[in-house]
Amino acid sequence: MFSATLQKILLCALAVNLFTFAERAGAQIEVQSEFSFQLGNQEYEQILTSGLGEINESWEIPVPDFTIGQPYATSVKGIKALVKSQVNGVSHHGPEVGLRLEIPEMNFQIDRVETSQLIEQVINGVRVRVHIQGSCEGISAKLIDDKVQADLRLSRVIQPSKLHWNLEDLFITNQNWRFELSIARCHAPQGYEAILKDEIQRYLEQTALWQGTVQGLIQEKVDQWSAQVSSQLLMAAPIDLGFTNFKMIMVPESLDENARRDLIIRGHIHGHFPNSRAPAQVLKVEFDQGDGGLDGSEGTALAVPPRLIANLLGAFSANGELYRTIRFQEVEGLRDLMRSRWYQFFLWPDLMNYSKKTNFALQIFGRQAPHVSEVSSLDGVLRGTFYWPMSAKMFLPWKGNFVSYMDFQTDFRALPEMEVKSDGIHVRFPHPSMTLEYQWDQNYLSQFYPWTHFAHKSIGSRIKDVVEEVDWILPLPQLKVKEKLVLKAKRFHYNASSLQIIFQK
After folding, report:
1. Distance between CA 288 and CA 94 in Å, rounded?
2. What CA–CA distances, in Å, run from 183 to 2, 76, 112?
3. Are the C-beta atoms of residues 149 and 143 closer than 8 Å to each other?
4. pLDDT under 50 in the chain at which residues?
5. Kind and range of the H or E element at 466?
6. pTM score, two decimals?
7. 399 CA to centre of own chain
8. Is the CB of residue 246 less than 8 Å from the CB of residue 178?
9. What is the distance between the alpha carbons of residues 222 and 355, in angstroms, rounded to a whole number?
10. Helical H segments across 205-257, by residue range
11. What is the DSSP letter of 477?
């Protein structure tokens, strides 16, 4: 049995990601797939609540001019209310939501008040005509009641292109407001100012006179928020898989709600592979059923058609993403092998003819695209059958050039398992099957006369053991729905119509 050090050498050599290499042919493959995303009711309400709950505003509300008829005809002009409000509660009732606004501060400002009226009176039998004139400027009214509240009722309307709220009702809970009025200056007969304050107070208490204006302003604010949320939910988002030679983007196209009031977003995933060795083509895949791959389960989930896996693997392979050239001195396991004459003697004696710093090159590639079949899931673990015919070419750096050294070939079969854990997606390959075949390059044999012993069975056996024993950990997918709502993958779910990733907060 080989030592732990040898296992490390073989493991590190095997653990190189097989992603980028080679000349690009320039044809483009595009992969298109439907997707359905279900945002669970709790997370959906969190988005709605966080947005509506942020309607904490300072409002400047224009109030219509009005006329006071008694005791004299008086016009009041240039009125505006300065109001501060903050949300003190959000409650959901199906498609409706209730908001409670507290109004800790409300001030009215009035530019000018003018009185001009000709009155007639009989004094001691004599008819007297008197022209009453007066004006005041710089009038302010400050609310001194700190318990003013307003209850809003909004109804949610969802359309394919937008989420919209309608303000159905605004009810001011306590309308016996008390104001403290002050007047900067007045030019009027004695007693005029006191009468004016009483009349303005009575008018401002009539909230129905300006409630419609307030509702319009709140609806305008809600419209802005609705448009912002709709834009965010329908915004195209890149999918980062760690590759650099192609682009994938998720494009939401429609919004909907199911009977449980979950949010349903449907759209397409577009993958652009610009450097394919295969002819240019468009690979489209859709759900077999009209339910968008969602099976009615609760919670948050992303569903794609199962055939997307095969299309992506084929595009990866054609685009050269499953190719890589590695150098022995850049990979710990291969570098350790070059430094150990002991292991070279038993496993690969020809390496002893070269410096321990010799930097062999190894080009690894698939002879065809990986194939996945018989996919299933149980208890959140995704299983399937995996087959990948692989080849590798090894080159010796010699006098400024690379000399072909040896060719390798294997058909790798396994029954992989994928499971989401706290530190990432764990991929295991239990019961792998592989036979490592090799062939010395004929030109190398004729020029260098190597010692051709190569313990391929021992190396192949140990590689299988290492593959079976080790968990390969991939980054844990996260889904940023909104700034304050980031979801993490929890488990996989597979059925005949879709492959799903189930998310949690």
Report:
1. 31
2. 97, 13, 10
3. no
4. 1-25
5. helix 456-469
6. 0.72
7. 52
8. no
9. 73
10. 211-233
11. P
Q: Which of 471, 432, 440, 472 is nearest to 456 (CA)?
A: 440
**Helix, strand or coil for residue 343?**
helix
* CA distance linking residue 161 with residue 234, whole number of Å: 8
Q: How far apart are CA 373 and CA 14, in angstroms?
A: 23
Measured CA to CA, the distance from residue 292 to residue 36 in angstroms comes to 6
SS3 category, 215: helix
The answer to whether the CB of 206 falls within 8 A of the CB of 48 is no
Distance CA 505, CA 499 (A): 20
Cα separation, 483 vs 180, in Å, equals: 43
Q: At what angle do helices 332-339 and 4-14 cross, to 10 degrees?
A: 130
Give the Cα-Cα-Cα angle 400, 404, 408 (nearest 5 degrees). 140
Query: Under DSSP, is residue 348 helix (H, G, I), strand (E, B) or coil?
Result: coil
What's the pLDDT score for residue 90? Answer: 82
What backbone phi and psi angles, to 5 degrees, belong to 356?
Answer: -65, -15
Q: What is the pLDDT of residue 7?
A: 37
Other Cβ atoms closer than 10 A to 339 = 13
Tell me, what's the pLDDT at 174? 66
The CA distance from 498 to 293, in Å, is 5
End-to-end CA distance of the chain: 46
Cα 39 from Cα 454, distance rounded (Å)? 56
| 401: three-class secondary structure by DSSP | strand
Q: Class for domain 44-231, per CATH?
A: alpha beta
Parallel, antiparallel or unpaired: strands 424-428 and 472-474? antiparallel
Domain with CATH 3.15.10 in the chain: 44-231
The alpha carbon of residue 202 and the mean position of all alpha carbons in its chain are separated, in whole angstroms, by 52
Work out the burial of residue 39: count CB atoms within 10 Å of its CB; fewer than 13 is exposed, 13-18 middle, 19 or more buried. Answer: buried
Token couple for 184: 């900067």
Judging by beta carbons within 10 Å of its beta carbon (0-12, 13-18, 19+), is residue 26 exposed, middle or buried? Answer: exposed
Q: Which residues contact 15 (CB under 8 A, 6 or more apart)?
A: 333, 470, 472
Please say whether the beta carbons of 248 and 238 come within 8 A.
Answer: yes
Question: Minimal CA–CA distance to 82: which of 152, 179, 168, 151?
Answer: 179
